[in-house]
Amino acid sequence: MEQIVFKEDDKFIYIFIPQRLYSKEAVLNCLYWKLNELKIRFSFYSEKEFQVSIDLKNLSLHQKENLKDTFSNDLLDYELREIVHRETKNIRELIIAKAFANGALDDL
Amino acid sequence: MSKYYLMPFNFCRLSNSNELIINTIGDYLILPNGTVKDIIKRNIQKKKDSELYLDLLSNFFISETPINPLIDAMAIRYRTKKESISNFTGLHIFAITLRCDHKCDYCQVSRQSQDFKEFDMSLEVIEKSIDLMLKSPNDCLTMEFQGGEPLLVFDKIKQSIEMTKLKNSVTNKKITYVICTNLTHINNEILRYCKDNSILISCSLDGPEFLHNYNRIYSNNSYKSTIAGLRLAQQFLGEDRISALMTTTTKSLTFPLEIIDEYRKNGLKNIFLRSINPYGYALRTQKNRYTTKQFVDFYKKALNYIISINLRGEFFVEDYAKIILTKILTPFSLNYVDLQSPSGIITGVVVYNRDGNVYASDESRMLGEMGDGKFLLGNVITDNYESIFYGSKSSMLSKYMCNEALAGCNRCPFQIYCGADPVHNYATQGDLYGRRYSNAFCERNKAILTFLFELMNQDNDVFEIFKSWVLN
Amino acid sequence: MIPLQFKGTPINISNPVVGIISNDILKKEILYVSSFRNDEKIILSAKAVSNMNMGVFGIPIDNLSPGDVVVTYPDGVVETLFRINSEDNTIFMTNNCNQNCIMCCQPPQRVNDIKHFFDINYTLIDLIPLSTKQLGISGGEPTLCGKYLSLLFEKLFNRIQDINVFILTNAVLLSDIKYFKHLKSFPKDKVLFSIPLYGDNSYTHDSIVRTKGSFYKTIKGIYNLFKEGYRVELRVIPQKLNLIRLEKLSQFIYKNLTFVENVAFMGLENIGKAQTNIEEIWISPQILSTHLIKATDFLRMSGINCSLYNYQNCILPKRLRHLSLQTISDWKMEYLPECSTCIEKNICGGIFNSSLNLIKQYIEPIKDENHS
After folding, report:
1. Hey, what CATH class is B88-352 in?
2. Interface membership of B56 toward C (CB under 8 Å)
């Protein structure tokens, strides 16, 4: 399964996210900002997929359509942020350590 | 595919199909949609995307070696951004009395009628507070008198300043004095003392008369006495020694242009468009509850108007924008305590209450007066500097003071320009950590930051105006 | 153009002699070169004279003044090291350089000359007037002289405490903090390090200095100087290879090198490598002006001093002229005949005599306020 899949019943929207393409951190960071408007559950559906369940109660049609439209792009943005974070974690720590080391780390 | 290494940065999308990338030391670039993905996938090539490649290199978004050869320069830049914290507490607010002659709707103080002298700071508390203030490692201090209405106890202000001058002959700090007043009790004798001691005056002017008086209730006409006091002070001390603040109430939201024109009319060259803190006494009435979106709409209208004034040749600055733009366009840090990470509470400001209680910030004191001592650090009579500034309360609070370590902030591109406000979080959401997705501080700052970047990007003339506000 | 080097016929000069020029009140046709080494004076003259025990004839002595310091070589070459009537005196440290700039006007040579020039300069310092206000240190690359630089400075500041020195260096060797032991004798407030920076990134800068790794080392050197408390100014030479990023260079300087005292944008001198490579580097004044305006506007707005060196007032847009300084050394500066009608001639820096042909077509005397 290589893409995000949406399913729906009368209670919830289900979003299945392939773990091969998206990290847990990216999914959580993406969902974080939706907690204001949505009631969300997050779990491991299988070894290969995350499952996100969103409560349909109190969700307007407009909100539902908007969610489906933007979710994939949103998630992709958060995955990109995770990639940058992972690749730059060490250099970031080094910059900050040097900033406050008062010269003690100048040889690194 | 190119071989380069990424430097730490975050990004967001601007409304006009652009991506805004901002790195860990505050450099930014605005790029066409899809560029971030190309950067990460190593699709940017020196040969075919030469100028972009060089921009990314020069602005510390990519590096050709695993450790950027200019990493020490980056460390100095980062250090410079955080410089205000290494100076530690600079702003010391003395709530010298709770007595006041006004009854402003949004007042953060449990004001008392002007007759009750037991609500003034005692000599003992004054002296002990000054001793604490002078223990700060910061070489430059601001001693700010607030109240109630401080001029009701002008003699105590004089006493405090004289005592400070005497004690400072040993510590030798550069001290700036500020009095926050509604100006109804200003007179020549007070102004003479202000002039002799280079005291700055900060007053409240909410807008034109009908609006000002609607918010700030005074037995006479608050607006008239404020303006009269303002004129007198400007003549005596010079226009640059007086500043005015406004507080945005629900009624203010309808009159952005009128408020700005009122400022211009009175010889003021800048305005700070402040939103009300949506907690504490301000929520006493329905009158002052409005949404962040309502405030942001008001702010945008006001700022657009101010920009148009500047484009016609008149220099007039919006202070909040100026603070943010200074962080964006210059390598320097600022002493504005509400937008710092680590947070400006304690590290940038403390408040000495008239009962000797020491609080982490202005808003902290209000919560204290309402019975919640969450941010009470100690008392000048019973506690010493170490236990107040470095004690268990401070330690506990410090865990929530860095936005680098808060959910929601940790992947936000504006992180380096923004701050952490645990007091706000606690007061509006019930916990120090806060929930960014429904946090008014976050929503407001993100909206204003995005707005400023979009303005700069869309119109070069506006960009030049902004530069003229902050570059030197 | 004032010549600084002469060749004549030597009589009895066995070693290079550094000495101070004096004249003979009675004999106007000769000058003396006195060093403190020996009492005997070397004689300089245009024509051969009798009784010349030690001297050089065939020298146009009108170009020398009493108080000037010269070095006379065994082969009859006489070089002016210090001119009493000039404020542009520079000490030459070495022909060696660790870079290879595309527009270098003093092309480097690999030759073992550091001790040679040190000996000359060490003596020179004793001979310059105590009232000397300013001295430049140049080359090649002065920092290649290591301890000799230190010894010279020590002597100089011992002798003349109030003198101001500027040192033209690429700061590459200063990227190693260990080098700073050679700078110990430099009084920090009296020495200005004048460092070229040609771009905001390694590609632009290194393509001009044609030495890989230079950009990063130069920046590191500048930072080391800043951290150790030394004064720094930057020199930028706008040319084809860095013109479009000129404003971005200003922004880079503002954000990362905010502490520099001044940024000087300098006109090309059409000599040496610049002359050889002129096709690859030359830009016309009109094109230059657009980018120069943006670059200087940004710096001035940010509160960083900037100035224009070696440009002529008539080729600069009106609003930039007040930044232009008269910096072309008098001995290589000239005006064109048409300059005599220009109303700004006395505040204009003139033209490099080497660049006359190149710039001639653009020169137009300023007749009134509406020019450009």
Report:
1. alpha beta
2. no
Domain co-membership, C231 together with C167: yes
pLDDT in tens, A1-52: 688 999 999 999 999 999 999 999 999 999 999 999 899 999 998 989 999 9
Domain count of the fold of chain A = 1
Range of the domain at A68: 5-100
Q: What is the pTM of this model?
A: 0.93
What is the per-residue pLDDT across C99-158, written as a single tens digit (0 to 9) for each? 999 999 888 988 999 999 999 999 999 999 999 999 999 999 999 999 999 999 999 999
A73 inside domain: yes
Listed by start position, the domains of chain B span 5-81, 88-352
Question: In this complex, do C252 and B76 lie within 8 Å of one another by their Cβ atoms?
Answer: no
Q: Do B70 and C254 touch (CB under 8 A)?
A: no
Which residue, among B29, B46, B50, B54, would best test binding to C if mutated, counting the most C CBs under 10 Å from its CB? B54
- DSSP-based three-state secondary structure for B201: strand
Which of A36, A80, A95 is opposite residue B24, by nearest beta carbon? A95
Contact check, Cβ <8 Å, B8/A34: no
For residue range C201-253, list pLDDT tens digits in order: 999 999 999 999 999 999 999 999 999 999 999 999 999 999 999 999 999 99
Residues C51 and C111 grouped into a single domain: no
Q: Which domain holds residue C106?
A: 90-309
Give pLDDT, residue A63. 87
Q: Is the ipTM of this complex over 0.85?
A: yes
Q: In the listed set C309, C339, C360, which residue is the last one of a domain according to the structure? A: C309
